[in-house]
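Data deposition worksheet. Section B asks for the primary sequence of the deposited chain exactly as it was used as input, without tags or linkers unless they were present during the calculation. Section C holds the resulting structure in C-alpha cell form. Section D is free text for depositor observations; keep each observation to a single sentence. Incomplete worksheets are returned to the depositor.
Section A, Depositor: J.P.
Section B:
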Amino acid sequence: MSKKSRIYTRTGDQGSSGLANGERRSKTDQRFVAIGALDELNAVLGVVCSQLTDHTLKQHIEALQQQLFISGAELALAKEVCIQEEHLFKVEKMIDHYDAALPRMTHFILPGGCVAGATLHHARSVCRRAECEVLHLKQQEEVNSHLLRYLNRLSDLLFVLARHVNQQLGEPETKWIP
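Section C:
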C-alpha cells in the first residue's frame, strides 16, 4: 500500500516556488503574480457557481474555470501555448448569446444586484487585474498574446453575465449618476 503524499513540501518556505519546468523563482516574481491572479479569478467563479441554480449557465462558467486552469498551467510552463484563437471565438459566441436578450445599455451601471450578479461583477474586476498582471509579465518575458486577448474578452463576458443573472432574477440595474 502506497503512502498518501503530503500537501506541504517545505520547498517554498524560503519564499521561492517552482515552475513546471523545475525552475525556481521568488514567489513575488511577476509570473507567479499573474498565475495567482488567474487562480483568484477561478476561485471567484467557483463562488459564482455555488450561487447559481441555472445549470446551463453553471456549465458555461465551469468551462471558463477549466480554461483558466489551463491558462495558469500555460504560464507555469513558461513556454507552451495553450490558449488559441478558437478560445476567443467561444467567449465571443457566449457574449453574443447572453447579450442578445439584454436591454440595450443607455448608461453606466454600478456593480451589484443579486449575490450571483454582484459576484460576477467582482469576478470581472479580478479578471481585469489578472489581464494587467499578465500584461506586466509580457513586458518582461514572452507571453502568448492570445491569452491577453482572451482575458480582455472574458471580462466583457463576465459583465454581460452579471447583467444576465440580475435580469433573470428581476434585479434592477443601478444607474451611475455623475
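Section D:
Strands lie at 16-18, 24-26, 109-110, 174-175.
The two ends are 67 Å apart (CA to CA).
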